[in-house]
Amino acid sequence: MPREAASATRQCLVSRETLPADEMVRFVVAPDGSVVPDLRRELPGRGVWVTATRAAVAEAERKRLFARGFKQAVTVEPGLAERVDALMERGALQALSIARKAGTLVTGFTKVETAVNRGDVAALVTALDAAPDGVRKMRAVVLRRFGTVDTVPVIRIFASAQLDLALGSANVIHAALTAGRASDAVIDRVQRLARYRGLDVSDGFDGNATADLAAPQD
Questions:
Q1: Strands 24-29 and 35-37, bridge-based pairing
Q2: How much is the pTM?
Q3: Mean pLDDT to the nearest integer, 23-42
Q4: Roughly how many angstroms between the first and final C-alpha of the chain, as a whole number?
Q5: Any alpha helices (H) in 12-103, and if so which ranges?
Q6: pLDDT of residue 167
Q7: Which of 96, 84, 88 is nearest to 127 (CA)?
């Protein structure tokens, strides 16, 4: 089936709210009768839609709403909400890998600092397990260049080991995304993952959130 247009709206199986398709997860029934997520919205067959949050997907599973939505008996393997999370996380990490290959991602403190000083940064990536001293130093680089830490979005949602695997490097702690379509794809997928997990969007350096992707302030 063709991918849903970004402007399309669908009704949530759980809340019955009508929302943009981009804020929802589509599910279909596999040939064996099991319910599977269709994050790319491309699989054939009738689809049902759930608001793209872990809580909503878990509620649909817990209340056995998929059978009602599909109007047939279906099988929902336990842990559906966790599987959707894992698929979203994998998609975001794959997008990072693609950005690296496209040349819109650099790693290492020195290269990231250079990109920041050029003003050519769409977002920063900092490992969840980055040492506090390294985070303070990167914060100082951004503050020195822009006069505020709110100018550059910060992605802090992956551990260093995850970044290592995605980027084919060792000990990735700091990275920078520069302008480009590949970087836009990373930011979009990370935003979706953060919303799904119910993460607060606050300052990635100063706050407690693991993803700061709010629009830069003027």
A1: antiparallel
A2: 0.87
A3: 96
A4: 41
A5: 54-62, 66-70, 80-102
A6: 96
A7: 96
Signed CA dihedral, 142, 128, 121, 196: sign only: negative
* Distance, CA of 171 to CA of 160 (rounded, Å): 6
Average pLDDT, the chain: 89
The number of residues in the chain equals: 218
Q: Are 173 and 164 in contact (CB under 8 A)?
A: no
Give CA–CA dist 29/32, Å, rounded.
Answer: 8
What domains appear along the chain, each with residue ranges and CATH number? 9-78 (3.30.1230.10), 84-212 (3.30.1330.30)
Average pLDDT over residues 69-78: 96
Q: How far is residue 20's CA from residue 60's CA, in Å, rounded to a whole number?
A: 19
Alpha-carbon span 53 to 40, nearest angstrom: 16
Give the SS3 label for residue 38: coil
Helix (H) or strand (E) holding 143: helix 132-146
**Cβ atoms of residues 66 and 57 within 8 Å:** no
